[in-house]
């Protein structure tokens, strides 16, 4: 007799010992998938809590995250609340797209949105949208409670710009 050579991971599991490369790969993929789902579910739950903590009124709010996309369901009290919820979710790290599936209990006009660029101030944004830099408090108030101070905005942040008569 002598030694016989085999390909270590090519065979099937015998007597419960070892796994094939394909079995190990399938298990690793399933583990990674489960871990990703848990991370996304945890992040969605944290966003729901954040919306609640900010006292943004929405019935049956549900956030689902898939990769860099968040889908929001529920009924917001009004359009401003709906838009603020979208901003809370969308301005969160890791979220690139918000799929808004929310409804609104009390209809009102939609606001415009502005993505802050380097050098922007609320005054400059107010000048652009309203023709008057002194109207910046309208933008600040429309973005509370996400904004805590008029000078604390950052590039990439998205802000609500309400119509002047519906601040």
TrEMBL record:
Keywords: Coiled coil, Cytoplasm. SMART domains: LysM. GO terms for cellular component: cytoplasm. Residues 112-161 form the LysM domain. It holds the Pfam family LysM. It comes from the Bacteria. It is found in: Cytoplasm. Residues 33-106 form the BON domain. Its main location: cytoplasm. Residues 37-64 form a coiled coil. PANTHER family: POTASSIUM BINDING PROTEIN KBP. This is Potassium binding protein Kbp. It comes from Bizionia myxarmorum.
């Amino acid at each position: 007799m002598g030694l016989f050579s085999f390909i270590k991971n090519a065979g099937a599991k015998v007597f419960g010992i070892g796994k094939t490369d394909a079995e190990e790969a399938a298990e690793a993929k399933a583990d990674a998938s489960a871990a990703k789902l848990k991370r996304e579910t945890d992040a969605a739950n944290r966003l729901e809590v954040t919306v609640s903590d900010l006292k943004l009124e929405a019935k049956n709010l549900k956030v689902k995250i898939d990769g860099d996309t968040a889908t929001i369901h529920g009924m917001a009290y009004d359009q401003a609340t709906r838009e603020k919820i979208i901003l809370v979710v969308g301005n969160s790290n890791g979220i690139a797209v918000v799929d808004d599936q929310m409804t609104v209990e009390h209809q009102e006009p939609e606001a415009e949105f502005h993505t802050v660029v380097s050098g922007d101030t609320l005054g400059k944004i107010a000048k652009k949208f309203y023709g008057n830099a002194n109207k910046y408090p309208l933008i600040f108030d429309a973005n509370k409670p996400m904004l805590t101070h008029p000078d604390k905005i950052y590039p990439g942040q998205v802000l609500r710009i309400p119509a002047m008569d519906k601040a």
